[in-house]
C-alpha cells in the first residue's frame, strides 16, 4: 500500500454505525455516522450502512481507497461473510460482506468481530503495541475480546477467536443468554455488576442512578456492597485471563470498554486476584493494563484488518 492509498473502515454496533477513511498510519481523514435502527428489520439496518458508505464514497478521497474493513458486533462468520449480531435481531446470517462489496465498487472486504477489531487497534496503536502475544478485552454492556499470537492478529476461521466473554468461570453459575452458564459476561459486564449490587442491597443516591458508573462511584467512596460487586467482576476477569494465558501464553491483557473506566476500583482487585489464578511459572509475569485507543478503536481496528488483508502497514502494525 502506497502512502497515498487509503482504506475504508466500518464499525457496526447496536447503538451506532460509524465509517471512516483511514490512511496507512491510522489517521482518520473522513468520518460518517448514523444511529443503528437495531430494532428494525434487516433492510432498514442496511440502509443506515448504505448512508454511511454513501458519505464515504462521495468523498473526494474515495478514489484512493483500496480495501474495506468491517468490525461488527457478533457473532460474525468471516468465512461466509455474514453477521448475526445479538443486539441487531434483524440480521441473522446477513450477507454483509456481499452488500458492502457491491456498494464499494467491488473492493476487497475484510470482516472481523468487534472484539477482534479493538484488539487490532490496540496492537497497532495502543497498549499492546510491541507485544507478540496479547489478549485485548472489551468490558462494557457485554464482554468481548481478541488475540494477537506470534505477532499477528488471530481472528480464527470465522473472525470470533478470543471471545472471552463466554468462557465459563462458574460451573454452577447463572444461565447466560448465549445458552451457557456462569459466563464471564454474566458476572463482569456493566449491567451485571449493577444488577448484582442492587440484588445485594446497594442503595443508589438521591438521583436514583443505578448505572455501573454509579456503582463505581459508590465503590470509590467505600460502599462495601458496590466494592463487593466489582471484586466479583474482577475475580471472573482474572480467572478467564489466567486460563487464556495458560492456554496460549499471552504476555499482556489489555482491558477497555465502559467498565474499565472505573479505574482502580476494577484494576486493583483484578491484578490482586490474578495472582491467585496465574500461578504457573510462564504466566506469573502477565501484565494487565487499560486500553489506550478510546472511542475510535473499532474504526482503527477495522482499518487495520483491511490493511492486513494483503496490504502493508507502517512499522509497529500487525502484518
From TrEMBL:
Keywords: Kinase, Transferase. Coiled coil: none annotated. It comes from the Bacteria. GO terms for molecular function: kinase activity. Belongs to the ROK (NagC/XylR) family. PANTHER family: N-ACETYLMANNOSAMINE KINASE, ROK (REPRESSOR, ORF, KINASE) FAMILY. This is Glucokinase. It comes from Streptomyces indicus. The lineage of its organism: Bacteria, Bacillati, Actinomycetota, Actinomycetes, Kitasatosporales.
